[in-house]
Amino acid sequence: MMDAPPLLCVATFRLGPRLDRRPGVKLSYAADEPVYVEGDQAHSVYAVISGAVRTLRYSLEGRRQIGAFYYPGDLFGLEPGEDHRFSAEALCPTEVAAIPRGAALPDENVLTQAALAELARAQDHLAMLGRRTACEKMASFLLDIAARARSNDASLPMSRQDMADYLGLAMETVSRVLGQFQNDGLVALPTCRDFRILKTPALERLAAR
Hints:
By secondary structure, this protein is an alpha+beta fold. The chain has 5 helices and 11 strands. The two termini are 32 Å apart.
């Protein structure tokens, strides 16, 4: 379970030291339990305290699409309208704070900064999906996770299927590429949920193609 604040980067908004002093009700969720469902009224925004969250929806053909992953310090559930356009589910045992719309916040710029971070996150995801090969997508994804962890040793709270649905790949392709990275000495995979980047420059070159 992830409980360390993420790195402040272009696609991540961190609430900072006031994380536990913000208004709102703390809620706990088991793995795969929904925080809200697509179409629900967006009466609150949510801040991840511990664990991790995925947003998702299903295409008309029934294919699951993951929009984003959120980690401790991230705000999610921001909507331009009255209803949620995606569902949100806990990836693992997770605690969030539900902050009612219109609630007074310690920093007046919190929602503005979070909205900008959400826009950057969506742009980064589109750029990742636009990469030509599965290897390029996976390299970019692993580098992003490592940057959030501020370490070349990082954990993956999501499953291989989650990664596949986020990257627009088949689960078999995700497993094959990770195995290829390991065989090439780019990464080590101590467990199915942990990885270590061994050759950062090589991964960066691959992600930048």
